[in-house]
Amino acid sequence: MSALAALVRLHTLLAPHVDDSLKRMVGALSDCIVVMRTLSERDYIFMDPLVSMVWTVYVNTLRSGLVPEAQAKEWLSEIRRHVPTLKAIIPFIDIPIDE
Questions:
Q1: Is there a contact between 63 and 27 (Cβ–Cβ < 8 Å)?
Q2: Residue 36 burial by CB count (10 A; 0-12/13-18/19+): exposed, middle or buried?
Q3: What pTM did the predictor assign?
Q4: d(Cα 49, Cα 92) in Å, to the nearest integer?
Q5: Residue of 95, 83, 88 lying closest to 52 (CA atoms)
Q6: How many CB atoms lie within 10 A of CB 90?
Q7: Closest C-alpha to 83, from 46, 28, 39
Q8: CB atoms near residue 26 (< 10 Å)
């Protein structure tokens, strides 16, 4: 997930100006959501606390206006669904999902 977040961040810089970067950014975000959808509660105990930084990159990118609004809302709700489980395992994390 960290590598996908790096791709998202990299392509976010160019996405407003380069169509290919926009497509790659959305593709990397889509891949991240696919990974999240495969997570079960058992998986969270093995996650690194840095995942909160990774998920924050996703949230900030989805709120940037670069992703179509309907898609961004769907993906944000998917992230929102996973945050309570992650916080139960790693209580000191902060993912700004409800701002």
A1: no
A2: middle
A3: 0.84
A4: 9
A5: 95
A6: 16
A7: 39
A8: 20
